Structure formats: C-alpha cells, structure tokens
Amino acid sequence: MSELGDLHIFAKVVALRSMSEAARSLGIAPAVVSKSIKRLEESLGVRLLQRTTRRITVTELGQDYYKRIANALNDLEEATLLVSGQADEASGLLRVSAPTSFGRMHIAPHLGTFMQSHPRLNVELNLSDDIVDVIADGYDIAVRITEPRDSSLIGRKLARVRRVLCASREYVAKYGYPQTIDDLKTHRCLQAHGGGPWHLEGPEGPLTIRPESALLTNSSEVVREATISGLGIALRSTWDVGEELHIGKLVRVLPSYEGSRNIWISAVFASRQHVPMKIRAFVEYLVALYGPRAPWDRMM
Description:
By secondary structure, the protein is α+β, with helices and mostly antiparallel strands. The chain is 40% helix and 23% strand. Among the domains are: 1-87, Arc Repressor Mutant, subunit A (Orthogonal Bundle); 163-259, D-Maltodextrin-Binding Protein, domain 2. The protein has helices at 3-16, 19-26, 30-44, 60-83, 100-106, 111-117, 169-175, 220-228, 238-247, 277-290, 295-298; strands spanning 49-51, 56-58, 92-98, 121-127, 141-146, 153-160, 163-168, 189-190, 198-202, 205-209, 233-237, 250-252, 258-259, 264-270. α1 (3-16) packs across α2 (19-26), α1 crosses α3 and α2 crosses α3. Residues 1-59 form the HTH lysR-type domain.
C-alpha cells in the first residue's frame, strides 16, 4: 500500500477512534489497518496511537500530525471528485457533532429527508454537550449554541436563541406570578449544576442574577421535565420549550425579561478554500430548516 494510503487509513482511525470501525468503513480487513499504522509509525519514527485491548488513544504527536494532514487529504478528495465529475454531488461520510437535547429534538427528526435527497451520502451524528475539537476529532461540522467567537473555524449562524423565564400553570396557580426580578428570591428556581448565573436583558438593561436551585441535578433535560411538572421557574430556550409554551403546559413569567440576545445556534466547520459539497449541502439544509424565523418561535 502507498504512503498516501497509509495516511488515509490513519486519518480514518483517528476520526472513528477505532481500527475495526476504520476497517469496516474502508472495506478492508482490520489486519490491513494495523499493518498500515505500524508502517506509518516506523517511517516517521514516532508513536501516533496508543493501543490497549479496549481502546485506542491518539498521542500528542499523533494529534498534531492529524491536524496537519486532514485538510490536505480533504483537498485531495475534492480534487478527485472534481476530476471524476462528482464535485457537485454530496457523497461519502458526513460527521456531525451537536448538543444532546438540540440534536435529538431538531436535527435527528430531519435527517431522513436530508439523506433521501443525497442518496450517496452517509451521516454520522454524535450528540454531546462537550465542545468538540472539529479538526482534531475529525468532524466535518459541529452545531454549537453559544456566543459567536473569533476562530480559525468558519461559522454560519442558523438561528438566534431566545431564552425565557417560564413555569407550569400548576406552579403559578399555587405560588403566583413573580411581579419583579427580586420576587424570584422567594420562588423555587431550577437549573442544572454548572448552569452559572442567569444573564438577562430587561427594561433597565442587562442584569445578572444567581438563583439557588431547588433541585440538584447535572441534567438540563431533568430541569426541563421538572419545570413542566410544576416544580419551579426556569430559564429555558424556546427551541427546548416552544411547543409547551404554545399548548399552554408552560407560561412565561416576567415576560419583559429574556436571556442574553447574543446567543446563536451556529454550524462551524474547518476553514478551507473549497468547502466540500457534503458540508455545503447540510449547512444550507439547516439554514432553510431554521430560518429566517425558527419554527419553535413561530409557534409562540
């Protein structure tokens, strides 16, 4: 096998974090993958991967090497597709990372339509609330919910995030509506561990409050369900509770206050001179799906 072939196999192992998965993806025997990695390490004189019986980890040198060759390999793939007349067709494997709840609610249900439109494309969707390294972890696209930041990555805004204070009808029937921000101190507030302070914008401008949660949990989804069940007041994104607000399971409290308006759902991907068709197609699909006004906000 050529040195270029060894590089391709190494990149696939890093992206999938598994020799067996890489072999399956490439349609070759696991022994071929193992020999290829060994040959590449011997030619470089460095250890790229640490192998145990249960897992593979990429060494620091391996990560650096992968970052340097990943874009070159993608450029080579694009050139091959261009010459073969397939550059305008989304194909291959598209690896996507997305936040757990958002991905489950607003990406997964729409993958069928997207993949039917691009029959030569396979999609790998990984859900995690950790911020992945798009390049080092081998992702084509990461969907993020955060403030836009300067980065070596390209970011495409998909939808603005609205976060509102809300509670169930049962809760406000029992405890009443807070009339002022200070009234929140006498109400049950809910948020997950590590949620940090609530950054709000209201009639008097930006303000920050630090609620003491009546519920201890590390799960934002638990907070969501606890809010719907009547346990307290929470600051929730409309993409998360838009339907419940629409049908009346939840009601807004202190409606003149919302969370920071500089939070966006964005798609980020590695900066390249020519963005592969599979990335362009998926990003444009999400843009059409969520904009110009997100469906969860149209319900309200």
